[in-house]
Specification:
Elements (H helix, E strand, L loop, with lengths): L2 E5 L4 H12 L4 E6 L32 E2 L22 E3 L5 H10 L4 E4 L6 H4 L3 H20 L4 E7 L22 H16 L4 E5 L2 E2 L6 H11 L2 E5 L3 E2 L2 E2 H14 L4 E4 L6 E2 H12 L5 E5 L19 H7 L6 H12 L1
Parallel strand pairs: 1-2, 1-5, 2-4, 5-6, 6-7, 7-12, 8-11, 9-14
Antiparallel strand pairs: 3-9, 10-13
């Protein structure tokens, strides 16, 4: 029986991987995180510009691209839906401790690691570069080296922030990277460290992650939509939301079919702005008392630059693993059915 270790198990994607484990008892599953999680050590995969996730402040503890009656950051968090699948099933492991990682992997005879842990506080990373690099670059290298020693593979989650967002057509995996933030640079360094230590690794870049777990953009917009009569949201940053459940299912497809090394892109299908995303959230949730108005990025300054365009081309992962990826609004509807 293959043993799979999921790190960052208390975050959005980590919780979704716990649900996948229930559907796949043919594997022996191990789940770890920093318990209790220190700030800003984080678990999840992709920084939506919304306040934190579990453990705080990830994913995306950078401020939401929204404001109330004026273009100021949305703040606070929302506790909607379940916050964890089963915290009692999660063991403590500090992935920044190379000796601890190696010991855990060897002791439990781990065959494959899915790393859902990251520092995704995008704005905080600008003034906390060393910690961001430790979690996003150094730690994945430790995981990759440990599993390489056992002849296994690592699935590493990366981000659209490795691109600068100046393109006008969807990014393919072979396009040059050019991150313009500390977060993006450390995540790219993590990709490089992983592939150097474990050439058979699978790297999945994703974007705009949300789920019913933790705190994320969808939950923040639900709360603000109920609390405020007017809300400003950025309309000139374009991408695609990713339902963490769909990403977890894609990871599971790779595991069951056999992990093919390399860099892949994954998000839901379609394209929207943060403004469009918010309008859809409110419409599907039946929120009619909040007027959402579009903001330019220049009206909402942040310490870290965001890509203006970060749509990911998913052709490679769809063809390799024979995936049918849901449209972003269909997946949003599915998530809201659990949240409302």
């Amino acid at each position: 029986m293959k043993t799979i270790l999921v790190t960052g198990a208390c975050g959005q994607l980590g919780n979704e991987m716990q649900l996948q484990a229930r559907l796949h008892p043919e594997y022996l599953w191990l789940f770890t995180d920093v318990v209790p999680a220190p700030v800003p050590a984080a678990s999840a995969s992709s920084p939506s510009p919304a306040p934190g996730s579990s453990p705080s402040p990830a994913p995306g503890s950078s401020p939401s691209p929204a404001s109330g009656s004026s273009p100021s950051p949305a703040s606070g968090s929302v506790d909607g839906g379940s916050s964890a699948v089963s915290s009692s099933a999660v063991s403590s492991l500090d992935i920044t401790d190379s000796a601890a990682v190696l010991s855990f992997v060897e002791e439990h005879s781990v065959d494959l690691i899915v790393n859902c842990a990251a520092y995704t506080a995008v704005d905080r990373a600008e003034s906390d570069a060393d910690r961001a690099a430790l979690l996003n670059a150094t730690a994945p290298g430790y995981l990759a080296a440990a599993i390489q020693g056992r002849g296994g593979q690592l699935v590493q989650i990366s981000t659209d922030y490795v691109f600068d967002g100046t393109a006008h057509t969807p990014y393919t995996e072979d396009l040059p990277t050019c991150p313009n933030s500390v977060y993006g640079r450390t995540k790219l360094a993590g990709e490089q460290a992983v592939l150097a230590a474990n050439p058979s690794a699978l790297i999945i870049r994703t974007a705009w992650l949300y789920s019913r777990f933790g705190n994320n953009f969808v939950k923040t917009m639900l709360r603000l939509g109920r609390e405020k009569t007017e809300l400003g949201v950025i309309f000139d940053q374009i991408g695609t939301p990713t339902y963490a459940r769909d990403l977890a299912a894609a990871i599971m497809a790779a595991i069951t079919q056999g992990v093919q090394p390399g860099v892949y892109h994954f998000s839901n299908e379609g394209v929207c702005s943060w403004y469009d995303f918010t309008k859809a959230i409110h419409r599907l949730a039946g929120i009619t008392t909040c007027h959402v108005r579009p903001l330019h990025t220049t009206e909402y300054p942040t310490p870290a630059a965001r890509p203006h365009y970060s749509v990911l081309d998913k052709t490679k992962i769809k063809q390799t693993y024979h995936l049918e990826i849901p449209y972003w609004e269909d997946s949003l509807r599915d998530c809201l059915q659990e949240l409302l």
